[in-house]
Amino acid sequence: MATAVVNGQDVTEMGRVSSFKLSDKVVEATASGFKDRTKRRFSLPAGPRFDSRRSSTVSVCSSTSSYTGSSSEEDEVSPREKNQKNSKGSSDFCVKNISQAAFGRREIEIAEQEMPGIVALRKRATDDKPLKGAKIVGCTHINAQTAVLIETLVELGASVRWSACNIFSTQNEVAAALAEADHSIFAWRGESEEDFWWCIDKCINTENWQPNMILDDGGDATHLMLKKYPAMFKMIKGICEESVTGVHRLYQLSKAGKLTVPAMNVNDSVTKTMFDNLYSCRESIIDSLKRATDVMFGGKQVVICGYGEVGKGCCQALKGLGCTVYVTEIDPVCALQACMDGFRVMKLSEVIRQVDILVTATGNKNVVTRDHMDKMKNGAIVCNMGHSNTEIDVNSLRTPDLTWEKVRSQVDHVLWPDGKRIILLAEGRLVNLSCSSVPSFVVSITSCTQALALIELFNAPAGRYKSDVYLLPKKMDEYVASLHLPTFDAHLTELSDEQAKYMGLNKAGPFKPNYYRY
């Protein structure tokens, strides 16, 4: 079984990645707007995978620890103990409070205004129902933007059951709105570790419903189905994965020969990597830190661990607001990019004593250890922009000599015996979706890519895809981008016949080969 976290192995050796050719129907559809398309609790398995999302409620701390509160504490009755029904009489959901549905619906309507691409795709494909018969298990962040994707998939003919991939990122009112609309949603903000896995299990295992597709963010639904329901997993037609962490796990499964279904690597598509990882994080890192701490950025010293697309976005934003930014990297190519962009590349141990803000964005584990945090200055802020809560060794802070104080939701002070304190955000989980939100427009781009990948996998003839990890072609990236250009009143230049012949291109694209890096 694949481990839950990046363990330092070379990802280039974790399985073959193949590009694929779109089916004639999908190519035809992208050109013509799709007009021609015909309550159970359980014991978790032992092992490191199930420790990666360890909850940080008071119960985690032993009786010997000094602990005065946690940002994940909830005094209310657990949603699992409530008997709730929507206006249609259905109880096939588990959310915080179904009465919040009206507020959630307004949030979704606001998000739709900033998601032109996915709304356009919905309008073009609704009549043809390209996902009719698809039964999708979804495990992603549940917020207003994701709700637009979920309702689009349903409009295209799919039946869905959805859970959250992060215990802190769910918008309760949005989950309620989806449940009121008769979608099977199992998620609420502040789930416990057991709740988290129970919700995913409720989506996978239910009477008179056999899933045949998975839309995952982090690989948790894929992992649980493979681990607990292997026979069901073999009946899956395809997996769509959008995160670095989840794709890495798919590569590991492929390398080990345990991936028995085809999977689409949405994360490494241009429209996801560049726009979601770079442009989105460039805005959301500032929003998260401001909302959580009210920090002034000018003059602060910041270290960003990792200079991938997420790290690049964070560095650009913080530098633009007057921070002195350091970068840590293991990859010489990324390190050289950071140097050419004007950042000092250092080891974390060399700058840890002087930084005011530390941000992790590597996808790895134990990037920031207790030894590092022991050396940090008083009042330093520590947060994570990676998918999983493994980058910061939060468990090492749960010792008798340290005291935790809850400041506000998702903000904790960790106090040392000498009076020093650090500010830990979201208990080491994804800070932008725990402490703020992400731009709806960027989510529209990613959602379009996910929807098209699901359509392709679901409608592909038998044998087209083997049990492997596939990359999205440039044609699909270009189509997704074209759906969003009208928002900016952008006008593309068209190649003449002579120019197209000279360049060896089709006038309608694709305009770049699959290996091209933007």
Can you put this structure into words, describing what you see?
The protein has helices at 24-32, 101-113, 116-125, 144-155, 172-180, 193-204, 220-228, 230-233, 244-256, 270-293, 309-320, 332-340, 348-351, 370-375, 431-435, 440-459, 474-484, 497-503, and strands at 17-19, 66-67, 135-140, 159-164, 184-186, 213-216, 238-241, 263-265, 301-305, 324-328, 344-345, 357-360, 381-384, 403-408, 411-415, 421-425, 469-471. By secondary structure, it is an alpha/beta fold. Strands 2-14-15-16-13-12-9-10-11 form a nine-stranded mixed β-sheet, with helices on one face. It has an eight-stranded parallel β-sheet with strand order 1-17-8-7-6-3-4-5, sandwiched between helices. The longest helix has 24 residues, at 270-293. It is globular. Mean pLDDT is 86; it is low at 1-74. Residues 277-438 form the S-adenosyl-L-homocysteine hydrolase NAD binding domain. This is Adenosylhomocysteinase.
Map the helices and strands:
Layout: E1 17-19, H1 24-32, E2 66-67, H2 101-113, H3 116-125, E3 135-140, H4 144-155, E4 159-164, H5 172-180, E5 184-186, H6 193-204, E6 213-216, H7 220-228, H8 230-233, E7 238-241, H9 244-256, E8 263-265, H10 270-293, E9 301-305, H11 309-320, E10 324-328, H12 332-340, E11 344-345, H13 348-351, E12 357-360, H14 370-375, E13 381-384, E14 403-408, E15 411-415, E16 421-425, H15 431-435, H16 440-459, E17 469-471, H17 474-484, H18 497-503
Parallel strand pairs: 1-17, 2-14, 3-4, 3-6, 4-5, 6-7, 7-8, 8-17, 9-10, 9-12, 10-11, 12-13, 13-16
Antiparallel strand pairs: 14-15, 15-16
Helix pairs in contact: 2-4, 2-5, 3-4, 3-16, 3-17, 4-16, 6-7, 10-11, 10-16, 16-17
